[in-house]
């Protein structure tokens, strides 16, 4: 993708960055104050896990319908509505737990937060990909990097809130207000939205077609493998360092910090690598790095080696989701449907991965269970070719979703660094 100097796109870019940052705030606010929610409701660890399933279920239901919603309303309106729902629901979690002490109300609020967040995330990736094309340079990894920055800031705010004994009702309410201001202010700068196709049977046809497209399904499997590798680190690294290496709990927390820092760094700098080397090569190097880090962590001889392995692991998994989202959005007219399909498949890793790894760890040990994730990382390496750029479809071609492009209808391609072809950024109009 050629770099195109377009100052008019910069406010749009900054607005999208604000929405990604705000999404990180929502996620980390709950995680950071989860002990306070547990104490307010008087729950055991197992009951907390069941409570969090409400949010997971809401997310999974929402992400599978998000493609249709984005096509009906457009990515901008879906993003704003999803973020608003997630923010208000987050405030509801604080009120339901701290004010009413109700598990039912808190569970309902968590389900609504999951629904809003999932739709928000799908719409953000569609909107981010549109802005990336208009900007003319790879920025999707940096957008996800700002999400990670948001999680760090949210976690820090949570630590301060816990240290000062700030009520979670007030804390969650204040954070909801910050998120609403960021999202509604950022959305004002968004450029024209090509994803809204209105109502009608064409939306269902596009979404159904996306579930039958081999490339889209392969992208989903690629994300599934790498998302499991990312989620496994987030869920189990701290415990693996404590149990597998016999380290203190503080060392486990430090190890997770090393992983997150490496991942955030790679996302902030990954756009340059993509512009220079192309998606396929970067994806394959990323998968190789993730596999090397994972295996080195499992079989390493010392805690020092394990920490170095976490750097490789974090660098490896950082770019896979942004790359897949960009690849799924190559065609603006089909972006919403394809991003929805890829996200739905990827969510399977976050939904089923943690409990399956836990059950496997009971039988073969936690470190050995983590090693099994390497099989899916190898799968992602093999499937990396699916991220190669493809041609977009013109609006005229969308009158019949299954209609093939003719040579006269195709834009003039330009050569990508990885030897593939894509449409020049300057010729794409959102």
From TrEMBL:
Chief location bin: membrane
Species of provenance: Paeniglutamicibacter kerguelensis
Comp. bias intervals (Basic and acidic residues): 400-413
Domain Major facilitator superfamily (MFS) profile, residue spans: 12-392
Domain of life assignment: Bacteria
Entry keyword set: Membrane, Transmembrane, Transmembrane helix
UniProt keyword Transmembrane helix, yes or no: yes
Membrane topology: Multi-pass membrane protein
Region listing for Disordered, in residue ranges: 391-430
The protein's name in its UniProt record: MFS family permease
Cellular localization per UniProt: Cell membrane
Keyword Transmembrane attributed: yes
PROSITE patterns per UniProt: MFS
Residues spanning the membrane: 17-36, 48-73, 79-112, 142-162, 168-187, 217-239, 251-269, 281-299, 305-327, 339-360, 366-386
Classification via Pfam families: MFS_1
């Amino acid at each position: 993708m050629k770099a195109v100097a377009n100052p008019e796109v910069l406010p749009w870019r900054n607005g999208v960055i604000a929405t990604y940052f705000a999404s990180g705030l929502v996620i980390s606010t709950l995680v950071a104050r989860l002990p306070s929610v547990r104490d307010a409701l008087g729950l055991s660890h197992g009951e907390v896990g069941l409570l969090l399933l409400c949010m997971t279920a809401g997310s999974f239901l929402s992400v599978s319908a998000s493609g249709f919603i984005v096509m009906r309303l457009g990515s901008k309106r879906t993003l704003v509505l999803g973020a608003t729902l997630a923010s208000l629901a987050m405030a509801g979690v604080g009120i339901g737990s701290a004010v009413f002490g109700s598990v039912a109300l808190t569970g309902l609020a968590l389900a609504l937060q999951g629904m809003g967040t999932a739709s928000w995330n799908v719409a953000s990736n569609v909107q981010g990909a549109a802005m990336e094309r208009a900007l003319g340079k790879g920025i999707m990894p940096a957008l996800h990097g700002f999400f990670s920055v948001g999680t760090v800031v949210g976690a820090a705010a949570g630590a301060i809130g816990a240290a000062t004994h700030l009520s979670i009702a007030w804390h969650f309410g204040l954070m909801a207000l910050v998120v609403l201001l960021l999202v509604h202010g950022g959305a004002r700068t968004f450029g024209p939205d090509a994803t809204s196709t209105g109502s009608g049977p064409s939306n269902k046809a596009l979404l159904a077609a996306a579930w039958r497209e081999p490339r889209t399904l392969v992208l989903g499997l690629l994300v599934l493998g790498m998302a499991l590798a990312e989620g496994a680190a987030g869920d189990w690294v701290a415990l693996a360092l404590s149990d597998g290496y016999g380290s203190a709990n503080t060392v486990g927390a430090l190890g997770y910090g090393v992983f997150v820092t490496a991942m955030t760094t790679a996302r902030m700098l990954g756009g340059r690598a993509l512009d220079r080397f192309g998606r396929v090569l970067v994806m394959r190097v990323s998968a190789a790095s993730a596999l090397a880090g994972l295996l080195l962590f499992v079989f390493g001889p010392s805690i020092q080696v394990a920490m170095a392995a976490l750097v490789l692991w974090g660098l490896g998994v950082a770019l896979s989701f942004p790359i897949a989202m960009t690849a799924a959005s190559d065609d603006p007219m089909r972006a919403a449907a394809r991003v929805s399909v890829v996200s739905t498949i990827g969510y399977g890793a976050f939904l089923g991965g943690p409990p399956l790894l836990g059950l496997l760890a009971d039988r073969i040990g936690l470190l050995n269970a983590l090693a099994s994730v390497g099989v899916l990382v190898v799968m992602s390496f093999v499937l990396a070719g699916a991220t190669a750029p493809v041609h977009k479809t013109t609006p005229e071609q969308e009158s019949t979703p299954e209609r093939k492009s003719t040579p006269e209808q195709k834009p003039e391609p330009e050569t990508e660094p990885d030897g593939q072809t894509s449409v020049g950024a300057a010729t794409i109009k959102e």
